[in-house]
Input
Amino acid sequence: MARNLGRRKRVMERSMRIGHCICDPRQSCPCDMLKERDICPCAGERPEPSAGPVRLTQLVEKAGCASKIDLLTLKRAVEGLPFPDDPRVILGATAGDDAGVYRLDDGRSLVQTVDVFSPSVDDPYVFGQVAAANSVSDVYAMGGVPMTALSIIGFPGNTMDPGIMREILRGGLEKMAEAGVAVIGGHSIQDNEIKAGFAVTGLIETDAVVARGRAAPGDRLILTKPIGTGIVSFAAQIGRASEGAVGAAIRSMVALNKRPSELMVEHGASACTDVTGFSLLGHLMEMARDSGVDAEIAWDDVPLLPDVVEYAAQGIVPGATERNREACEDRVRAAPDLDPIALDVCFDPQTSGGLLIAVAEERADALLRALVESGVTGAAAIGRITGRGSGFVTVSGRGQRPKTTRANAGVRVIAAASSPAEAADGACCAPSRSEACCASGATEKGAGNHGDIAGSIADTERKFKAFLQAAAAPKGLDAHTKQAIALALSVLSKCEPCLAAHIRKARRMGFTQEEIDDAAWSAIAFGGSPVMMFYDGVKERMASESEGA
Output
């Protein structure tokens, strides 16, 4: 990487004079990038292209449509806003449909939508394809034909190889070309997390709009893609997904909803919505409420990606699942004997999901057959509109899909990490922790005073901490179980800083005091009275600290 030292000196003098980095006022000068990597972004210096592949999902907090603002928060934010009242707007912001519809003349209307989210896959090119397929899907859900698009991308251009951004754009452009959409421009911004998407404009015959609020009693519900992309993406983020599951999720996410849209229009669908970040149940609830009906789906009939039930049983459920549940729980009813895993999966946030189509009973079989014959092999009839109502959705089961071990054992969702950072935060001695419980004082700070010996010690300590972090991360055992083991071992070893750190973490994970005590007494059973007295002493001191605070 070429460095212009004169330019670097000029911009650094300005930054140091005002006491703030001119690129990022939150930092002083020299910034962390300069100190750690000898790169000055303000002087136009950029890192060298990566020698190997970059895993995009490791660079974001929430993957794919799980990064979207949840439905409850969104509704609170837009409630009461003064959207213009224009008679040419057939479906606008207040309708909350998949896309807006604007009348052009007596026969045609514009369909417009925009969608942006963070990476749901690691490969930049594939992410661009997923972003494009997801963005045009809202137009397909209305029965429209997408015509033009504008790309939108957020990218950390100061710290990341621009070749990655190029690959994202290349993937998006090629997928848009497959859809027959002309990308005529776009917009980019600096962003600490990568985001990409498109604003899409399409055309539709005004009388042929397939709005989500027109489902009728007796309609069958057909879903055109399997669900579980949120769970698989999260499992991939934390290194727990199989190649087969990731491959199936990618194939599903990059598949256009073009042919399913054409077929639903040919078969006279009553209503449609595409299933994305608000989950299968969230989008169905919105369809039912807007249509003034109630609906029922059969868990046994819902198509799933490979390994999704197994991951959910292990507690690998993204945080957006709980936000979707909160937004819909007053209108979603589960059959008494339903496997709890079913709701976790049905509330899973989808990225570039399938179309959820309501179609009259007499047309449903023909539509489903046409979908399968056209290559949409994941399509399935999953339920029906049961009658007039206020938007309630019932999830039932016929017992054909066996209940999971997790449901039988009562393992809780709260044990799952909500981000990759939290999933890796299992070791009390992990690097950069303010609560390092076992660091014995041999740190890098003293390395310069003792030459090679101290450097070797610092290197050994780093490797040991990395080992601890890897050992504590959930693999065969889920995060909840590993945390209980860490508590017990801290008690048995009588390491007070360790125990205090693990008690605090257990509480953040949702452990009750009874569960913490239960883990501790497993150790006391081995260590006897001295271990019991140690544990009681730590509990008493932590209680006093809490009262003092």
User: Anything to note?
Assistant: The two ends are 51 Å apart (CA to CA). Residues 150 and 185 are 5 Å apart (CA to CA). Confidence is low (pLDDT under 50) at residues 407-427, 430-436, 438-451.
